[in-house]
Write a structure and sequence with these properties.
Catalyzes the dismutation of two molecules of 6,7-dimethyl-8-ribityllumazine, resulting in the formation of riboflavin and 5-amino-6-(D-ribitylamino)uracil. The protein is mainly β. Helix content is 11%, strand content 43%.
Length: 198
């Protein structure tokens, strides 16, 4: 479980093809030595929950299987590619974002980006089967970043980014045509299933 509050902007050091997926070595700059990672812990990489399988100082390794590579933007990440990083939520931590599972639903394409004062407005195109799980002023995770939806259409949604978010996450540099990982609000998913809408 995560909060969608990105802790670090990491970089892919290596991306190695494996028989059933891909293995990534990722650098977490300034990883707190007083709270080192542990083998087997969960880390959200661009909002995708992955398991640490190797450690070497600031560099850790994770593996992504075929389903993960198909459903997320991680398959397009190579050496030097930036990724948002967040360690799992601990009991007693402040919950400043919203509950994020790290189970990416799909990807969306950025189709519009414009500056509005100090903020940036972003509009994304998405498969219309996902928009019923979105509501204006509701929560969404975009590349693992907890954000508030501005507007929702049949096959699109929009968000606004404050300067801090642009400075410390991958969302500060994405451009039209880029794809991002999307996790819709898990409460909306449960309500939809209970209402028999699936």
């Amino acid at each position: 479980m995560f909060t969608g509050l990105v802790e670090a902007l990491g970089r892919v050091e290596r991306a190695l093809e494996e028989e059933n997926g891909r293995r990534f070595a990722i650098r977490w700059p300034g990883l707190d030595p007083s709270g080192p990672m542990a083998m087997g812990e969960s880390v959200a990489v661009n909002g995708c929950c992955l398991t640490v399988v190797a450690l070497d100082g600031e560099v850790f390794e994770v593996q992504a299987g075929p389903e993960t590579l198909l459903r997320t933007n991680l398959g397009a990440k190579g050496p030097g590619g930036p990724v948002n990083l967040e360690r799992s939520l601990r009991v007693g931590d402040r919950l400043g974002g919203h509950f994020v599972q790290g189970h990416v639903d799909t990807t969306a394409e950025l189709v519009e980006r414009r500056r509005e004062g100090e903020w940036d407005f972003l509009r994304f195109r998405i498969d219309p089967k996902w928009t019923p799980l979105m509501v204006e002023k509701g929560s969404i995770a975009v590349d693992g970043v907890s954000l508030t939806l501005v507007d929702v259409g049949e096959d699109w949604f929009s968000i606004m980014l404050i300067p801090h978010t642009m400075a410390v996450t991958t969302l500060g540099t994405i451009r039209p045509g880029d794809r991002v990982n999307i996790e819709t609000d898990m409460l909306a998913k449960h309500v939809r299933k209970l209402l028999g809408k699936e």
